[in-house]
């Protein structure tokens, strides 16, 4: 099963990388861009687990390893079963 | 006193720290290999700077799962002295031995330069050889040294006097400019509640010899040695575990100069 | 059957192809053709440069290993050897600045530790187009981040180098990386596949389709097609390289290795054929055993992949298990992929079939060498005949303008992104004339510098080459160091054009002559041709890397003034030479005239005098004069001390004031000393037949220069400092919206 996990900084934490990208987009004329938040994408291929197990293990992996809960939040989606 | 310097894959200030402790400070020093489960009877563990596991994921995020870190945690829980320098500080944060987290430097660049830090609390095992308000000149070299903690945690840290070092200017004044990486409350060094685990971004091992431009880093090492000697002197120290033979047959760093 | 298009794709001529057929006695298959194409490329085969590179002096009293190995080696006493080399990564850095520069660092690091040395310093010479164009800023930002990202993580300090800007590099930036390593003299390793029956072991990262044909690409001009070559760029993994370093050094320390070579440009091809050819042996490998990152790779791809962080090791069969254990300890793969044979052929099997069978000597040693035609370029007459423009009225303002020129201004924005202190040996930090490393436990130290002025070389390649050597040595002299060995990186345009070939030949001869006169051997280096975009070549840019030995590190002076009241001494003579100066370029937009003259004997005396004064403990500050001339050098001394400090200088030379202030006459050094020691320096200079005089004093909050009783420069220290300090950072300031 393929799962995609998105990790990004919490709203309360300043994201200077996102701001820099936003500023760069503005200088290029994309003034419609209101805000940019930068994050990381993980694509994980799991085997031998059913959907319920995946739904249990993914948040665990994300919380324990992939994201640092003090500064980061995560979301995830199943890409293919 | 016996110091142990942990070697993670990607550590690169391990030998520098070893050199400062053994050759400059005259202390017995051993390397501790990340895959080992044994602290070899050391009095103090140092997590050195570098890029453990390439800092891939997040700085220090993978290193905290190393076998040796379980031992370091136990050691710290039982009151053992632990110093984390730079990447070592990041690992301590990731491992939960110190509170908070690190963000990218505010200018989004790696920063290697001499900075000034002010001793905020000299009543710790890591700063007693200096005086409160003393300004030290010590280099930093990091990409993720922008300390972050939520507001309530910050006020708790301040209340408990856990901030040991703050970035400042030459004269000891705090400013946005002197706070080069953008750390919350200009925090450069932080201690745990119990007072036995310290993390700091500046590299004291790079400021321990006159020929390198500063000897201020020795204040940190001297404080630790003083503390350990006093602790031993009062006989409170538990009987040292017999050091088992080195699990790693060769010192991990060969041909260092 | 190999058709014309296939040959063109491989950058081989019909004649070269016919030679290949003759050498192997049949038509090559595509994989074999690929092998010849990379090994006979300009990058690996030096086919246009070889006849000229022979002119370099390659013997010297400290020399252990000259050209022909992965790096040069010098004996520095106490059982220690210094291993060093420079390499270019120009084209990859244009295509993908971060990865191009990063893998440039990775490649040169492997060249050093493959010889048994631990890399202890990196220096880099960077050249970009002007910073007012955003593309150039973005290239520079990427390159600096790439060097920083790789070197910092690996744990080697980047201690120095140079950064220059000129329109000619706008679409062809130069990234030259020099690495210096230290080894025990009795523990050096060579790339030799000795011992028939020995195992051939592949270690490090897996092979993917990275940079296939990167080595050939690096030798082709840029054009529209460059865009399509993008996927060929390799990605570096500094973490893996650090593990590879530790594992290799550990295996070497335990005497488990017979021969070793890194797999850089041309990967498995280069390492197998070269190691066998140098040992007079052959090699038989099974391509199925090569660890692969991607599925379905064919022999061509496996042989030509440029995946990074890989090494090829030859070891005795009974040592293989121990060797594997070491690599496992460092979480690396080590796989036996073949053995050393006695037939001087490279044979490779794939899915049970023999897919490569070629004589290694043909591949390695029989690459044709061309004596390409050379012709003096027509433009030279136009640019060297030149009348000086009238002197601007406000030289005080020009002084500030020069301080803010990115070619002169502070480079801290660059070097503070590099970890320049790791390994705790760096005692003179970046920004000085030469970087200096202490050697732990010894009184002596190592000094190192990179230098080259391409504008001089453009106007007069022979003299430009000579000056590059002289100035690099002068940089070392300012640290009190004696030069002992040279590496060089020669960046030029398309050698098939006679004008470019002429520049190359002239520059090489100039460098060769200067090295001979300075008695320093050239231990190797790198030639980078085809630095052209849409037919327009860069200025000829030889970059010299020179290593020096410091007898007593406690006497190394600072490049900046250390306090008020010091006496400022000028060694050497001021002349009316403005040709090729930064002043003419910046103020009049003229890149014209003859570069300053160089009298090598005089230069040597000035340097010897500087060294002697330092060794006698007389000198507090030493700084050489280069771009921007005397006034700029004085300002740099002001800014580079522990804290900025002013000066008062009086000059009475009968010269045009602009030439006196900003002319770039060679063989000059500024010294500063305590009053009582200054007299001794003058006496020493007199004895050594070097012109020397007191020109002023340090102190105050102003920079003031008098010329024949007229105040010609008078600037508040703070203003000058800000102009110098903020110039480059201001270009990179993020605009807040």
From TrEMBL, chain A:
Q: What class of enzyme is it?
A: ligase
Q: Per its UniProt record, what SUPFAM superfamilies does this chain match?
A: PurS-like
Provide the primary localization: cytoplasm
Does the keyword section mention Isomerase?
no
User: Where in or outside the cell?
Assistant: Cytoplasm
Read off the InterPro entries from this record: PurS, PurS-like_sf
Residues that span the membrane, as ranges: none
Gene3D superfamilies in alphabetical order: Phosphoribosylformylglycinamidine synthase subunit PurS
Gene Ontology cellular component list:
cytoplasm
Instruction: List, in alphabetical order, the Gene Ontology terms for molecular function in this entry.
Output: ATP binding; phosphoribosylformylglycinamidine synthase activity
Q: What is its EC number?
A: 6.3.5.3
Q: Cite the annotated pathway.
A: Purine metabolism; IMP biosynthesis via de novo pathway; 5-amino-1-(5-phospho-D-ribosyl)imidazole from N(2)-formyl-N(1)-(5-phospho-D-ribosyl)glycinamide: step 1/2
Q: Which reaction does it catalyse?
A: N(2)-formyl-N(1)-(5-phospho-beta-D-ribosyl)glycinamide + L-glutamine + ATP + H2O = 2-formamido-N(1)-(5-O-phospho-beta-D-ribosyl)acetamidine + L-glutamate + ADP + phosphate + H(+)
> Which Gene Ontology BP annotations are present?
'de novo' IMP biosynthetic process
Q: Which UniProt keywords apply?
A: ATP-binding, Cytoplasm, Ligase, Nucleotide-binding, Purine biosynthesis
The secretion signal range is none
Q: What does this protein do?
A: Part of the phosphoribosylformylglycinamidine synthase complex involved in the purines biosynthetic pathway. Catalyzes the ATP-dependent conversion of formylglycinamide ribonucleotide (FGAR) and glutamine to yield formylglycinamidine ribonucleotide (FGAM) and glutamate. The FGAM synthase complex is composed of three subunits. PurQ produces an ammonia molecule by converting glutamine to glutamate. PurL transfers the ammonia molecule to FGAR to form FGAM in an ATP-dependent manner.
Instruction: Enumerate the PANTHER family for this protein.
Output: PHOSPHORIBOSYLFORMYLGLYCINAMIDINE SYNTHASE SUBUNIT PURS
The family assignment reads: Belongs to the PurS family.
Under the subunit heading, UniProt states: Part of the FGAM synthase complex composed of 1 PurL, 1 PurQ and 2 PurS subunits.
Q: Which HAMAP family match?
A: PurS
This one is known as: Phosphoribosylformylglycinamidine synthase subunit PurS
Tell me the organism.
Candidatus Saccharicenans subterraneus
Q: Which gene encodes it?
A: purS
TrEMBL record, chain B:
- Catalysis: reaction(s): N(2)-formyl-N(1)-(5-phospho-beta-D-ribosyl)glycinamide + L-glutamine + ATP + H2O = 2-formamido-N(1)-(5-O-phospho-beta-D-ribosyl)acetamidine + L-glutamate + ADP + phosphate + H(+); L-glutamine + H2O = L-glutamate + NH4(+)
Q: Which Pfam families does this entry report, sorted A to Z?
A: GATase_5
Its Enzyme Commission number? Answer: 6.3.5.3, 3.5.1.2
Pathway, according to UniProt? Purine metabolism; IMP biosynthesis via de novo pathway; 5-amino-1-(5-phospho-D-ribosyl)imidazole from N(2)-formyl-N(1)-(5-phospho-D-ribosyl)glycinamide: step 1/2
Record's keyword annotation contains Ligase: yes
Record's keyword terms, sorted? ATP-binding, Cytoplasm, Glutamine amidotransferase, Hydrolase, Ligase, Nucleotide-binding, Purine biosynthesis, Transferase
| InterPro entries assigned to the protein according to its UniProt record, in alphabetical order | Class_I_gatase-like (IPR029062), PRibForGlyAmidine_synth_PurQ (IPR010075)
Q: What cellular-component terms does GO give this entry?
A: cytoplasm
* Residues annotated as the enzyme's active site: 86 (nucleophile), 203, 205
Select a single GO molecular function from the record's annotations and give it: glutaminase activity
Q: How does it assemble?
A: Part of the FGAM synthase complex composed of 1 PurL, 1 PurQ and 2 PurS subunits.
What HAMAP family does this protein map onto? Answer: PurQ
What role does this protein play?
Answer: Part of the phosphoribosylformylglycinamidine synthase complex involved in the purines biosynthetic pathway. Catalyzes the ATP-dependent conversion of formylglycinamide ribonucleotide (FGAR) and glutamine to yield formylglycinamidine ribonucleotide (FGAM) and glutamate. The FGAM synthase complex is composed of three subunits. PurQ produces an ammonia molecule by converting glutamine to glutamate. PurL transfers the ammonia molecule to FGAR to form FGAM in an ATP-dependent manner.
Name assigned to this protein = Phosphoribosylformylglycinamidine synthase subunit PurQ
From TrEMBL, chain C:
Under Enzyme Commission nomenclature, its number is: 6.3.5.3
List keywords of the entry alphabetically: ATP-binding, Cytoplasm, Ligase, Magnesium, Metal-binding, Nucleotide-binding, Purine biosynthesis
Q: Domain named PurM-like N-terminal: which ranges?
A: 68-182, 431-550
Record keyword Mitochondrion present = no
UniProt subcellular location: Cytoplasm
Q: Which GO terms describe its molecular function?
A: ATP binding; magnesium ion binding; phosphoribosylformylglycinamidine synthase activity
Q: Which residues bind Mg(2+) 2?
A: 111, 262
From the UniProt record, give one GO term of the biological process aspect: 'de novo' IMP biosynthetic process
UniProt-listed InterPro entries: PRibForGlyAmidine_synth_PurL, PurL_linker, PurM-like_C_dom, PurM-like_C_sf, PurM-like_N, PurM-like_N_sf
Q: Which residues bind ATP?
A: 46, 85, 488, 525
PurM-like C-terminal domain sequence ranges: 196-349, 564-702
Task: Give a GO cellular-component term.
Answer: cytoplasm
Q: Specify which residues bind substrate according to the UniProt entry for this protein.
A: 88-91, 110, 234, 306-308, 528
Q: Enumerate the catalysed reactions.
A: N(2)-formyl-N(1)-(5-phospho-beta-D-ribosyl)glycinamide + L-glutamine + ATP + H2O = 2-formamido-N(1)-(5-O-phospho-beta-D-ribosyl)acetamidine + L-glutamate + ADP + phosphate + H(+)
The pathway this protein participates in, as annotated, is: Purine metabolism; IMP biosynthesis via de novo pathway; 5-amino-1-(5-phospho-D-ribosyl)imidazole from N(2)-formyl-N(1)-(5-phospho-D-ribosyl)glycinamide: step 1/2
What are the catalytic residues?
Answer: 43, 89
Residue positions annotated to bind Mg(2+) 1 are: 87, 526
How this chain assembles, per its entry, is: Monomer. Part of the FGAM synthase complex composed of 1 PurL, 1 PurQ and 2 PurS subunits.
Family listed: Belongs to the FGAMS family.
- Any idea what this protein is called? Phosphoribosylformylglycinamidine synthase subunit PurL
Q: What organism, scientifically named, is this protein from?
A: Candidatus Saccharicenans subterraneus
């Amino acid at each position: 099963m393929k799962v995609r996990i998105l990790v990004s900084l919490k709203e309360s934490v300043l994201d200077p990388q996102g701001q820099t990208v936003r500023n760069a987009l503005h200088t290029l004329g994309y003034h419609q861009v209101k805000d940019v938040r930068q994050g990381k994408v993980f694509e994980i291929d799991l085997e031998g687990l059913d959907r319920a197990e995946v739904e249990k293990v993914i948040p665990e992996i994300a919380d324990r390893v992939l994201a640092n809960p003090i500064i980061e939040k995560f979301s995830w989606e199943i890409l293919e079963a | 006193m016996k110091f142990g310097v942990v070697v993670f894959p990607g550590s690169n200030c391990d030998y520098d720290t070893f050199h400062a402790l053994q050759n400059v400070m005259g202390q017995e020093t051993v390397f501790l290999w990340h895959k080992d489960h044994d602290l070899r009877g050391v009095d103090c563990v140092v997590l050195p700077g570098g890029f453990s596991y390439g800092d891939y994921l997040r700085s220090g995020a993978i290193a905290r799962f190393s076998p040796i870190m379980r031992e370091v945690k136990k050691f710290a829980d039982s009151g053992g002295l632990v110093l984390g320098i730079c990447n070592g500080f990041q690992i301590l944060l990731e491992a939960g031995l110190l509170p908070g987290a690190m963000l990218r430097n505010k200018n989004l660049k790696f920063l290697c330069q001499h900075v000034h830090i002010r001793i905020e609390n000299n009543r710790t095992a890591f700063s007693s050889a200096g005086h409160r308000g003393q300004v030290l000149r010590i280099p930093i070299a990091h990409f993720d040294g922008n300390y972050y903690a939520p507001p309530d945690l910050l006020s708790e840290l301040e209340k408990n006097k856990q901030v040991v070092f703050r970035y400042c200017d030459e004269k000891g004044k705090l400013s946005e400019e002197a706070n080069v990486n953008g750390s919350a409350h200009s925090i450069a060094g932080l201690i745990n509640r119990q007072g036995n685990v310290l993390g700091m971004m500046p590299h004291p091992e790079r400021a321990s010899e006159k020929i390198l431009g500063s000897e201020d880093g020795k204040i940190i090492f001297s404080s630790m040695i003083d503390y350990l000697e006093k602790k031993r002197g009062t006989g409170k120290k538990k009987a040292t575990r017999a050091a088992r033979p080195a699990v790693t047959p060769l010192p991990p760093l060969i041909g260092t100069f | 059957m190999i058709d014309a298009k296939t040959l063109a794709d491989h950058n081989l001529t019909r004649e070269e192809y016919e030679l290949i057929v003759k050498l192997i006695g049949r038509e090559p298959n595509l994989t074999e053709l690929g092998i010849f194409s990379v090994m006979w490329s300009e990058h690996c085969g030096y086919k246009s440069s070889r006849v000229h590179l022979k002119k370099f002096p390659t013997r010297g009293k400290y020399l252990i290993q000259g050209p022909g190995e992965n790096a040069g080696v010098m004996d520095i006493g106490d059982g220690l050897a210094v291993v060093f080399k420079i390499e270019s990564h120009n084209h990859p850095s244009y295509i993908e600045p971060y990865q191009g520069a990063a893998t440039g660092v990775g490649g040169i690091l492997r060249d050093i530790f493959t010889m048994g040395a631990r890399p202890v310093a990196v220096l880099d010479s960077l050249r970009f187009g002007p910073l007012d164009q955003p593309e150039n800023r973005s290239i520079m930002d990427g390159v600096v981040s790439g060097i920083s990202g790789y070197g910092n993580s690996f744990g080697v300090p980047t201690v120095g180098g140079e950064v220059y800007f000129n329109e000619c590099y706008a679409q062809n930036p130069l990234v030259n990386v020099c690495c210096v390593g230290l080894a025990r003299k009795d523990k050096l390793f060579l790339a030799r596949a000795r011992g028939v029956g020995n195992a051939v072991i592949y270690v490090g990262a897996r092979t993917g389709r990275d940079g296939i044909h990167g080595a050939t690409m690096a030798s082709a001009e840029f054009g529209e097609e460059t865009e399509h070559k993008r996927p060929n760029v390799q990605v570096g993994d500094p973490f893996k390289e650090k593990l590879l370093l530790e594992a290799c050094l550990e295996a070497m320390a335990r005497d488990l290795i017979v021969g070793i070579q890194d797999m850089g440009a041309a990967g498995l091809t280069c390492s197998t054929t070269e190691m066998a050819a140098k040992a007079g042996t052959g090699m038989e490998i099974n391509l199925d055993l090569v660890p692969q990152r991607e599925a379905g790779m064919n022999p061509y791809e496996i042989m030509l992949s440029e995946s990074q962080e890989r090494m090829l090791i030859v070891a005795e069969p009974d040592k293989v298990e121990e060797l594997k254990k070491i690599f496992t300890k460092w979480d690396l793969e080590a796989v036996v992929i073949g053995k050393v044979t006695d037939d001087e052929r490279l044979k490779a099997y794939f899915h049970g079939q023999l897919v490569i069978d070629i004589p290694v000597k043909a591949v390695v040693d029989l690459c044709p060498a061309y004596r390409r035609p050379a012709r003096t370029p027509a433009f030279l007459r136009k640019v060297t005949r030149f009348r000086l423009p009238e002197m601007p009225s406000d030289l005080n303002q020009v002084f500030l303008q020069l301080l803010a020129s990115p070619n002169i201004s502070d480079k801290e924005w660059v070097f503070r992104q590099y970890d320049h202190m790791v390994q705790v040996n760096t005692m003179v930090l970046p920004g000085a004339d030469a970087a200096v490393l202490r050697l732990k436990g010894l009184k002596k130290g190592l000094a190192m510098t990179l230098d080259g002025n391409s504008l001089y070389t453009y106007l007069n390649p022979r003299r430009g080459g000579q000056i590059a050597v002289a100035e690099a040595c002068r940089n070392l002299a300012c640290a009190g160091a004696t030069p002992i060995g040279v590496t060089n990186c020669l960046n030029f345009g398309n050698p098939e054009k006679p004008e470019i070939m002429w520049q190359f030949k002239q520059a090489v001869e100039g460098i060769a002559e200067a090295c001979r006169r300075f008695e320093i051997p050239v231990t190797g280096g790198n030639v980078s041709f085809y630095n052209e975009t849409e037919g327009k070549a860069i200025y000829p840019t030889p970059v010299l890397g020179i290593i020096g030995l410091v007898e007593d590190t406690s006497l190394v002076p600072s490049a900046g003034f250390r306090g008020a009241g010091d006496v400022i001494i000028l060694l050497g003579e001021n002349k009316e030479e403005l040709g090729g100066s930064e002043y003419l370029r910046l103020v009049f937009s003229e890149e014209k005239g003859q570069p300053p003259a160089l009298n090598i004997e005089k230069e040597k005396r000035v340097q010897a005098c500087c060294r002697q004064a330092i060794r006698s403990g007389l000198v507090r500050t030493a700084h050489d004069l280069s771009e921007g001339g005397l006034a700029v050098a004085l300002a740099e001394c002001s800014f580079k001390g522990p804290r900025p400090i002013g000066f008062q200088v009086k000059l009475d030379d009968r010269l045009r004031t602009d030439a006196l202030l900003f002319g770039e006459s060679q063989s000059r050094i500024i010294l500063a000393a305590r009053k009582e020691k200054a007299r001794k320096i003058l006496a020493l200079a007199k004895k050594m037949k070097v012109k020397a005089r007191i020109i002023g004093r340090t102190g105050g909050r102003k920079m003031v220069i008098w010329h024949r009783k007229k105040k010609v420069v008078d600037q508040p220290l703070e203003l000058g400092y800000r102009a110098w300090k903020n110039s480059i950072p201001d270009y990179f300031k993020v605009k807040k919206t």
